[in-house]
Amino acid sequence: MMVDLANAIKQLESWETGKGILIYGADNNFCSGGDLNFAQKTGTAEGGYKMATFMQNVLTRLQHLPMLSVAFIEGYAIGGGAELAISCDFRLFSNKDAAMGFVHSKMGIIPAWGGLTTAIQTLGYRTALDLVTTARVVRAAEAEQLGLSDAMVCDLSGALDWLAQRTQHDVSVVRAAKCVANNTRQQGSDNLLDFEKRVFSPLWGGPANKLALSQRIKHK
Fold this sequence. Notes:
- By secondary structure, this protein is of the alpha/beta class.
- It contains 11 helices and 7 strands.
């Protein structure tokens, strides 16, 4: 999935007339996070650093796209799925039961794909730190209060309509607005992202992470 996402971003980077993209999952779920088998096979500090480096690059490139990005969250966006969602410009929840959670702490790790850094930039220091340290799964109503959700739309068609309202003007205008906004948000973020993955990597495959993986925790 990580490689597929990277390939999709590469294609989008060459889309010269694009104004907006909508990211959504299959089978009424956005993204349920990392694969446990992959985590066990790559469970070393070196493996964690390499994985974090790869995904930070992918999600930073997603943020740098000169078009609006919207995550349409049906079901759950947890763990890495929450990091993907927070990397988008906007997040739409499909109904009151749709949920998002930075559940990494339950797995003995922290966000490493830039998720904590981006959450602080988006939500503020206290809210982001609270969400990560409690590892709670936030449903639509609270997500809207916290600024995680921009709106609730019932289906994919509604999400496309929501995006269309923000991409109705000339492509040059939309892309210019996105570039300026993103540059303002991203100023100096490279060092912050490097620090995040350096703190994360020893936790990947560490004692708490291995214990969590062996318990095959279900996030609710």
